[in-house]
Design goal:
A 5-stranded mixed β-sheet has the order 5-4-3-6-7. A hairpin with a 2-residue loop joins strand 6 and strand 7. It starts with 6 loop residues before the first strand and ends with a strand. Helix content is 23%, strand content 31%. The chain has one domain. It is built from 2 helices and 7 strands; from the N terminus they run ββββαβαββ.
Length: 101
C-alpha cells in the first residue's frame, strides 16, 4: 500500500470532532476525503486538475455542490480507487489523523 506522511501538526481550525487532533498534513494532495455525517462522506477537489476531472466524470447532486461529492463509504472507496488509477493523490482525514494515498 502506498502511504506517506509528510509532516505532523495539529488541526486547530474549526470546532468539529477532529479539531485539536495531531495529524499528518499532506502536501500536494488532489482530493480530500472525510466523513461528513454518520453514513455520508465528502470528497473535495483540492487541485485544478482534480476539479476538472470531477466535472468531466461526475454529475453534481446540485449546482451549488461545485467540486464536492457526497457519498456513502462504498462510493468513497470506489471513487478513491478510480482517482488513484488516474494518478491523483488523496488526503484521507480519519478519526485518528490524516493519511496520504
Amino acid at each position: 500500500m502506498d502511504r506517506s506522511t509528510v509532516s505532523r501538526e495539529t488541526l486547530a481550525e474549526g470546532s468539529g470532532p477532529r479539531s485539536g487532533i495531531t495529524t499528518a498534513r499532506s502536501e500536494g494532495a488532489d482530493f480530500r476525503i472525510q466523513r461528513a455525517a454518520d453514513l455520508m462522506w465528502e470528497v473535495s477537489a483540492l487541485s485544478d486538475r482534480a476539479a476538472r476531472w470531477v466535472r468531466a466524470n461526475y454529475q453534481p447532486v446540485s449546482p451549488s455542490d461545485g467540486d464536492v461529492i457526497r457519498t456513502d463509504l462504498v462510493g468513497a472507496n470506489r471513487f478513491m480507487g478510480k482517482a488513484r488509477t488516474q494518478g491523483f493523490r488523496i488526503e484521507y482525514i480519519g478519526p485518528h489523523g490524516v493519511n496520504l494515498f
